[in-house]
Amino acid sequence: MALDERRVAFIGAGHITKIILDNLVKTKKLPSHRLIASDPEKTKLQQLSDKYKIIMANDNVEAVDKGDFVFVNVPPQVVGDVIDELSLKGFPNDTLIITLAAGIPIKAYERLGDNIPVARALPNPPSQIGMGIAALAFNPDVTDEQKSDIFELFAALGEYVVLREENINTVMALSSPVTTYLFFQSLIDAGIRAGIDRETSTKVVYQTIVGAMEIWNQRQISPHELLSEASTPGGISVESIFTLEKYAFRAALNEAINTAVLKAENLGDKVQKT
Ligand SMILES: NC(=O)c1ccc[n+]([C@@H]2O[C@H](COP(=O)([O-])OP(=O)(O)OC[C@H]3O[C@@H](n4cnc5c(N)ncnc54)[C@H](OP(=O)(O)O)[C@@H]3O)[C@@H](O)[C@H]2O)c1
User: Which segments of the chain does DSSP mark as H helices, in order?
Assistant: First the structure.
């Protein structure tokens, strides 16, 4: 079955559902009459329906009945209740769950029945503009055909990587834009400190980051080689690299990612115990 023949339901009509709908509709991946959503807050559903012409389900069970793929886009603390609700009627085992709830593992859905295909996904904030990167993990019950449709679906939000579920938190930490924003802000501030105005510094730093990334994109060589090419012996760039190493730039980034992964694992453990 091709993606545009699937019916995709969303349990929870909050921020991430809106982002996914927005991209699916913009990229024309699915006609709106194949998109369904449920949410206890009917005004939210109505707003989504007015904007994207999707079908409003009366409740979560109806959303599951109408969908081939079912996104679980509710807050992590509510996932247990949703699973209880869906298991009451018996969950169809040809319906695929795509869970976005942070910290909730695939195995939490085993309660729905045997051999239910479950995909876990974690898109990052630039998905809002179709330039995201999503981490995807699957249980063994997801078929190749379903995977191929999920890839097409997430391509509407940007790029994706497929990995083992235990690595989802690492992608979450790496794909958070905060490190990049802090790097951006710090370089702008350094330009101001060295004597240029904020606007000029921002323009210079922005174009340098975008240009440097585009060179990597076009040449696909390792950053190590690019660093080496940019480093004239005894020149200015090696001085900058030496100073950054002296102030533990690399170690600081490593620790930032490491502590974010640990924090996400802790939060996940807490949510599962509640
Ligand atoms: N936002 C993101 O960029 C992002 C990215 C990756 C993953 N996620 C994950 O996606 C999930 C949703 O995030 P969000 O940002 O969209 O949150 P959100 O804006 O708070 O949306 C969650 C929605 O779920 C609804 N809901 C609550 N209980 C429900 C139930 N029993 N049945 C059906 N719907 C119910 C909420 O309704 P009420 O407001 O009426 O309670 C709300 O509309 C979270 O688990 C989050 O970790 C989000």
Answer: 15-26, 42-52, 60-66, 79-88, 144-155, 168-174, 178-193, 198-219, 223-230, 236-246, 249-273
